[in-house]
Amino acid sequence: MKQAMPVNEQQLGPNLTFYDLHPPATDMLAEVTQSLSAARPHLHPKYFYDETGSRLFDAITTTEEYYPTRTEAGLLEQYSGDIQRQLGATGTIAEPGAGSCQKVRLLLERWAPDRYMPLEISRDCLLQSTRELSLAFPDIQISAVCADYCQALSLPSDSLPGGRVVFFPGSTIGNFDPEERRQFLRGLHHLAGPGGALLIGADLQKDSARLNAAYNDAQGLTAAFNLNALHHLNRALNCDFDVANMRHVAFYNPEAQRIEMHLECLKDQQLKLGECQLTLKSGTRIHTENSYKFSVESFTRELMEAGFTPRGCWTDPDNLFSLHLASTD
Ligand code: AVI
Known about the structure:
The chain is α/β, with parallel strands linked by helices. Helix content is about 35%, strand content about 25%.
């Protein structure tokens, strides 16, 4: 585990404290240049999420084809009481990558914890969403932590309020490759701390046709979301991707048990990235995302390997999605 870093603490309202861990800025140009020049060109999925990408993702979650968000919301709606009974009184709910803090509202309403601790790298997004939350939930202490996931997961347990239920919804865990996932789940175990728990959503394996449809919606929103990563790079790095000549590709890879998203070049193109010139040949695919799909058993095993004790699992009648509750001891 890393050493404690200075935590800058600021009181922004009667029930809102802001902890700034000063997430280190990444060298986007160096990172992107390296990943696009690799033998298998790839881009980190974080580049989807500029303002346009976040709006497109929200729009995807409302499509007929993309079942995970509404299925998980239905599970939380239906089972939040059962989950709370398993947990007992909830001191703190911590949420890494909380974004707009929307999904947690149902738990805040129903569980009325003492404290909510969102961890989010985007300072603006965190400030806006927690200001709104602190007004909507005046009896809950909001401890907003501006931090990179990994940085926050290596915090010493006593540097922020403890005894936590970590909430990690949306099957974002499926966007981590297996080794990263192992480490990340261990980090969540550390964040939850002694006497803590994890409530996490995991998308389930199913018929390939259903999965392929979810990542190739008829309105073309997932295609726009994927292609927007290149618009984002064009804007942020002043590079010149010919986005009109790139194509969204998404398919289920049954051996790897994951959806893969790629961007395929339809024509040769020269790309200027800072001082670097790159040639992308027609047919080249840039791998932009993996979205792993689990069985209840396989995910339970991963939780146990990370040191958790499974306490409950809830699924919908069509077995599309699973919500897992596990404790740290
Ligand atoms: C954020 N994450 C869980 C989504 C997923 O399903 O893997 C991202 C996404 N990519 C395309 N559509 C949605």
